[in-house]
TrEMBL record, chain A:
Source domain of life: Bacteria
UniProt GO MF annotations: 3-oxoacyl-[acyl-carrier-protein] synthase activity
The protein's name in its UniProt record: 3-oxoacyl-[acyl-carrier-protein] synthase II
Keywords: Transferase
A Pfam cross-reference name: Ketoacyl-synt_C
Automatic annotation (TrEMBL), chain B:
GO biological process, one term: fatty acid biosynthetic process
Domain Beta-ketoacyl synthase-like N-terminal: 70-216
Disordered, as annotated region: 91-113
Record-level Gene Ontology MF annotations: 3-oxoacyl-[acyl-carrier-protein] synthase activity
Organism in which the protein naturally occurs: Streptoalloteichus hindustanus
Keyword Disulfide bond part of the UniProt annotation: no
Record's keyword terms, sorted: Transferase
A Pfam family matched in the record: ketoacyl-synt
Organism phylogeny: Bacteria, Bacillati, Actinomycetota, Actinomycetes, Pseudonocardiales
SUPFAM superfamilies: Thiolase-like (SSF53901)
Protein name: 3-oxoacyl-[acyl-carrier-protein] synthase II
C-alpha cells in the first residue's frame, strides 16, 4: 500500500542564508542575495549581478576528504545534507541500517571546475589540466558526496541532470521511492555553483537582468543567476512517528511532464498539464491551494507563460503566487529544492514569503505575487513549480501534516 | 508461452543501438557477436588527443545522418540519441521544434503517457568550446547562442521528446558509468508509480577530444583506455496480454556506494541484496555482463561476479571490449549485449541475467533481468 511521505528535516546553503533559521528570517524579511559576481571575471559584460554564496566554509559541515575532494556544487549539496540530517534529529550512525535514497538535481554539476580547466588549457594546453580539478567535474559527486560524507554505503545515490527543475525531480523521486517501499529515508534536493559558462549562456540569450530579478513585474528584465543547495529529509509518516520525529509538512504529490515543444521556451500546455498531474497525485483540488511558489524566473517569456498556465488551471482567482528568485536568484538545480524548503517552512510557520523588487504587476500575469512584504497566512497547501530547458516540468505539492483527517494510505 | 512474466511486470519490448558497429540493432548484434575491435586511428578533426585511436560510430555526422532540417545546433551526444530514437520509434511521429502535432487525440494521449529517461553526461566538448570562446573572443559574450541548450545534460532527452512528441516525464541521469542502471531503475519506477505507460530508456555518450582529455587526467597515472561512443535505447512497458512479445523482464536494480575502495566486497554485497530482494538464488544466474571498468576497478568487479556465479555466465553475453569505454552508455550497451546473446532458441529462457556496473566515483550497481524465450 502506498505510504504517506513527510518532511522531517531541511538544509540550506544560499546567498541569503547558510542555516535554516537564517533562511526563515531572510524569507520573512524579503532579503535580497544579489551582489556583484566575484567567482569569475566579469570584465566585458555590461552588467553581472549574481546571488553568490559568500563566506561559505565547507569545514563547518564536512570532513577533510570532502573539503579536499569535492567541487563547489558537491560541497554545497553535502553541507546542506548534513544540515538536513541534523535538523531531522538523525545521526549518520542512525542511518546506517536504513535504506537511503540520495537524489540530487543539478543543472551544471561540476561546471565551475570545468570552466577553470578550460582556462588552464588555454594557458598550458590540454596536458596542463590539473588532475585534482578534473576529478571534481563529474556530476555524480553531488549525490555520491552526500553518501560518502554520511558514510552511507547502502545508499542508492543518483544525480539528476534535469536542469532548472531538477530539485523538484529529486523530491519527486524521493516521494515515489518511499511510497513504493524502496527506501526508508530519502535525502533529496538540488545543488549548483555559479559559473562563467552558465552566466554567459543566459547573457547571450539576453536573459540576464541588469540589476535585480523582478518576477511578474511589468518592467522585469530577466534572471539574476545564483547558487547554493537545498536538501530535504523525506520519510514515511510511519518512520517519522516511530522515531518521534518532528514533522514539518507532508509531500502530498508530484507531477512530471515534458513540453516536447521547444528547447528553451516554456510552453503553456506542458506547464498546465504538469500542475494538474501534481494536484491529482496529491488529491488536492485547485481551490485548496493556498500559495504557489512559481518558477518565476523574471524573464518576459517564463513569467507570462507560467501565469497563463496558472490561470488555465486555477481559473480567474488563482492563489497567491510568489517568485522566490527575486531574493535567492536563479540557483538552477537548487532552485526548486530551495523553493520547496520555503514552501515547507511557510506551512510550518504559517506565512507567505514575498516577491521582492516588485513595483507594478504585469497585467499579462495578473497574479497576487505578495509584493515586497511577507504576509501571515493560513497555509495548508503549497504548490512548488519547477520548469527547465528541455521542457522538463516538475511540480511538487506540499501540505500541512494532519494525521487525523485522512486514513492511513491513499 | 511467457509464463515467466507476470501481468504488469516491466518488460523490454523493443530496442535499438547506434554504436561503433554502425547504426541499428542488427549492426550491433552482428558486430558484437563477431567481436572484432572497432578501434580506428583518429583523423585530424579532433585535434590533439591523449590517445590516437577511438571507437567511433562510423560516418556519424549529425546532419548527414539526421538530415539538415532542424539539426544545425544538434550536438553529437544528442544526435546519437536522436538516431537511436529514430530506430526505435515509428517514423510518422517526428515533429520539429515549435510545431504543434497534427495527430489525432488517441495518438496524442499515447504520447502524454510516454516518458524518456536518458543516462548521459551531456557534451563536455560543447561546454568547453563555449567557455573557451567566452575567454578568448574580444567580448566575453561572443559565443554561439545556438550552443546554449547543449550546456545542460538534459538537451538530448529534451530533443528526443521534441522530435517524437513524447510529452510524459522526461529525465536525465548523470551518474557516469552507473547511470545506465540508474536510468533503468528510474524508468521502472515511473511505470510502477503509474507516471508513464511506456518509457524510452537508455543512454548516450559521445567521443570528443575534451572527454578524452578529462578521462586521461582523471585516471592518471593509469594508462588510458580506448574510448567509445554511441547510444542504446529500450522501450520499457508493463506487460499485458496485449503487449508486443517481451524480450526481457526488468526485475530490478540494486545500487550502492563503495566507501573504502573494496569494490569487490561492496559489489558482492550489492548483488546478494539484489538477489535476495527478488528471491533469486545465485545458481539461477545464467548470464552475466560486467561493465569492464579499466584497471583494478574492473578486476574487482569481475572478481565479485565470478565469486558468486562462476565464469560460465560471463561467457554467455558478448564482450563489449570491441566498442571501447563508452562511459555513461556502458550500462545500456551491456543490456543490449544481453539481448544480442547467441544461443540456441530457448536456451536460458526463464533464467536470470545480471548486469553489473561500477564507476570510479564510487557508485556501483546491478540490474537483474529475466530472460524470455527468443523468437
Amino acid at each position: 500500500m502506498d505510504q504517506r511521505v513527510v518532511v522531517t528535516g531541511v538544509g540550506v546553503v544560499s546567498s541569503v542564508a547558510q542555516s535554516v533559521p537564517e533562511f526563515v528570517a531572510a524569507l520573512r524579511a524579503g532579503r535580497s542575495g544579489a551582489g556583484p559576481v566575484t567567482l569569475f571575471d566579469t570584465t566585458g559584460f555590461a552588467h553581472a549581478p549574481g546571488c553568490e554564496v559568500v563566506g561559505f566554509d565547507p569545514r563547518r559541515w564536512l570532513g577533510p576528504a570532502a573539503v579536499a575532494g569535492l567541487g563547489r556544487a558537491a560541497q554545497f549539496s553535502a553541507s546542506a545534507a548534513r544540515m538536513a540530517v541534523a535538523d531531522a534529529g538523525l545521526t549518520a550512525a542512525g542511518l546506517l541500517d536504513r535504506r537511503v535514497l540520495v537524489s540530487v538535481g543539478t543543472t551544471d554539476g561540476g561546471s565551475y571546475e570545468l570552466d577553470q580547466l578550460v582556462a588552464a588549457e588555454i594557458a598550458g594546453g590540454p596536458g596542463a589540466m590539473p588532475a585534482a580539478l578534473v576529478r571534481r567535474v563529474p556530476a555524480g559527486a553531488l549525490s555520491v558526496g552526500v553518501a560518502r560524507e554520511l558514510g552511507l554505503a547502502r545508499a542508492h545515490a543518483v544525480t539528476l541532470g534535469t536542469a532548472c527543475s531538477a530539485g523538484n525531480y529529486a523530491i519527486g523521486e524521493g516521494l515515489d521511492a518511499l511510497r513504493a517501499g524502496e527506501a526508508d529515508i530519502a535525502l533529496c534536493g538540488g545543488a549548483d555553483a555559479m559559473c562563467r559558462r552558465n552566466f554567459t549562456g543566459f547573457y547571450r540569450l539576453g536573459l540576464i537582468a541588469p540589476h535585480s530579478c523582478q518576477p511578474f513585474d511589468v518592467d522585469r528584465q530577466g534572471i539574476v543567476t545564483g547558487e547554493g543547495a537545498g536538501m530535504l529529509v523525506l520519510e514515511t509518516e510511519g518512520s517519522a512517528r516511530r522515531r518521534g520525529a518532528r514533522i514539518y509538512a507532508e509531500v502530498r504529490g508530484f507531477g512530471l511532464t515534458c513540453d516536447a515543444h521547444h528547447q528553451t521556451t516554456p510552453h503553456q500546455d506542458g506547464v498546465a498539464r504538469c500542475m494538474r498531474l501534481a494536484l491529482a497525485d496529491a488529491g488536492v483540488e485547485p481551490g485548496e491551494v493556498d500559495v504557489i511558489s512559481a518558477h518565476g524566473t523574471g524573464t518576459k517569456a517564463n513569467d507570462r507563460t507560467e501565469s497563463r498556465a496558472i490561470h488555465e488551471v486555477f481559473g480567474r482567482r488563482p492563489p497567491r503566487t510568489v517568485g522566490l528568485k527575486s531574493m535567492l536568484g536563479h540557483t538552477m538545480g537548487a532552485a526548486s529544492a530551495l523553493a520547496g524548503i520555503a514552501c515547507v517552512l511557510a506551512i510550518r510557520d504559517q506565512f507567505i514569503p514575498p516577491t521582492i523588487n516588485h513595483h507594478r504587476t504585469d497585467p499579462d500575469c495578473a497574479l497576487d505575487c505578495v509584493p515586497n512584504r511577507a504576509v501571515s497566512a493560513r497555509v495548508r497547501i503549497a504548490q512548488n513549480n519547477g520548469l527547465a530547458f528541455g521542457g522538463n516540468n516538475a511540480v511538487v505539492v506540499f501540505g500541512e501534516h494532519q494525521p487525523e483527517q485522512r486514513p492511513e494510505g491513499r | 508461452m511467457d509464463r515467466s512474466v507476470a501481468e504488469g511486470a516491466p518488460v523490454v519490448t523493443a530496442w535499438s543501438a547506434v554504436s561503433p558497429f554502425g547504426i541499428g540493432r542488427d549492426a550491433f548484434t552482428t558486430g558484437v557477436r563477431a567481436g572484432a575491435s572497432t578501434a580506428r586511428a583518429l583523423g585530424g578533426e579532433h585535434g590533439v588527443t591523449p590517445v590516437d585511436e577511438a571507437c567511433l560510430v562510423p560516418g556519424f555526422d549529425v546532419r548527414a545522418v539526421l538530415g539538415r532540417n532542424g539539426t544545425r545546433n544538434v550536438d553529437r551526444v544528442s544526435g546519437l540519441a536522436l538516431a537511436a530514437a529514430r530506430e526505435l520509434l515509428p517514423q510518422d511521429t517526428k515533429g520539429t521544434e515549435g510545431t504543434q502535432g497534427s495527430a489525432d487525440d488517441a495518438e496524442s494521449r499515447d504520447r502524454d503517457d510516454t516518458a524518456v529517461v536518458l543516462a548521459t553526461s551531456g557534451t563536455v566538448q560543447e561546454m568547453r568550446d563555449f567557455t573557451r570562446s567566452s575567454l578568448l573572443e574580444t567580448r566575453p559574450f561572443y559565443v554561439n547562442p545556438g550552443a546554449v541548450p547543449s550546456g545542460v545534460p538534459n538537451c538530448a532527452a529534451g530533443l528526443v521528446a521534441i522530435w517524437h512528441r513524447l510529452r510524459g516525464p522526461n529525465a536525465t541521469i548523470t551518474t557516469g558509468r552507473t547511470a545506465g542502471l540508474h536510468a533503468l531503475a528510474y524508468a521502472r519506477r515511473l511505470l510502477t508509480a503509474g507516471r508513464a505507460r511506456q518509457v524510452v530508456v537508455g543512454a548516450s555518450e559521445e567521443y570528443s577530444a575534451m572527454r578524452a582529455w578529462l578521462e586521461f587526467h582523471h585516471h592518471a597515472p593509469a594508462p588510458p583506455g580506448v574510448l567509445g561512443e554511441g547510444s542504446a535505447l529500450f522501450l520499457l512497458e508493463r506487460w499485458t496480454r496485449h503487449s508486443p512479445p517481451p524480450l526481457v523482464a526488468v526485475l530490478g536494480v540494486e545500487s550502492q556506494v563503495c566507501l573504502d575502495g573494496d569494490v569487490e566486497e561492496a559489489l558482492r554485497r550489492c548483488l546478494l541484496e539484489g538477489l535476495r530482494r527478488h528471491g533469486i538464488s545465485p545458481d539461477e544466474v545464467w548470464a552475466a555482463s560486467t561493465s569492464h571498468a579499466a584497471g583494478d576497478l574492473g578486476r574487482q568487479e569481475r572478481a565479485a561476479v565470478t565469486s558468486l556465479f562462476g565464469e560460465q555466465p560471463l561467457t554467455r553475453v558478448p564482450d563489449l571490449t570491441p566498442i571501447g569505454e563508452t562511459g555513461s552508455a556502458t550500462g545500456a550497451f551491456q543490456v543490449a549485449a544481453v539481448l544480442s546473446r547467441r544461443e540456441p532458441a530457448g536456451e536460458g529462457a526463464g533464467r536470470i541475467a545480471v548486469v553489473t556496473s561500477v564507476d570510479s566515483g564510487g557508485t556501483l550497481g546491478c540490474g537483474l533481468f529475466r530472460l524470455l524465450p527468443s523468437r
